Automatic annotation (TrEMBL):
Region of interest (Disordered), residue spans: 41-82
Bias kind Basic and acidic residues: ranges: 41-74
Name of the protein: CsbD family protein
Organism ancestry: Bacteria, Bacillati, Actinomycetota, Actinomycetes, Mycobacteriales
Domain of life per record: Bacteria
Length: 82
């Protein structure tokens, strides 16, 4: 099964992962479990990278849309000069 890494989906994954990681950190503090705190920190860091990926994918999608629009303009200009 192909993994879907579109910008919006990756952003949601990042937000959810960050919330879960933060919750693990808080529970680790409450329960005095450093392993749970560390797991939470790692998950928050992963979430940060997922959000970075979402931003990059959104920028790439925007650039592709602009390129497609320019291509359409170029074709229209080429057809009108014939």
């Amino acid at each position: 099964m192909a993994e879907n890494n579109s910008g919006p989906i990756e952003a949601v994954r990042g937000i959810v992962s960050g919330a879960i990681g933060f919750t693990k950190q808080v529970l680790g503090v409450i329960l005095s479990r450093s392993d749970l705190q560390e797991e939470g920190r790692a998950q928050v860091e992963k979430a940060s990278h997922q959000l970075d990926a979402a931003r990059a994918e959104a920028e790439a999608e925007s650039a592709r849309a602009k390129a497609k629009a320019q291509e359409s303009r170029q074709k229209a200009a080429s057809n009108s000069s014939k």
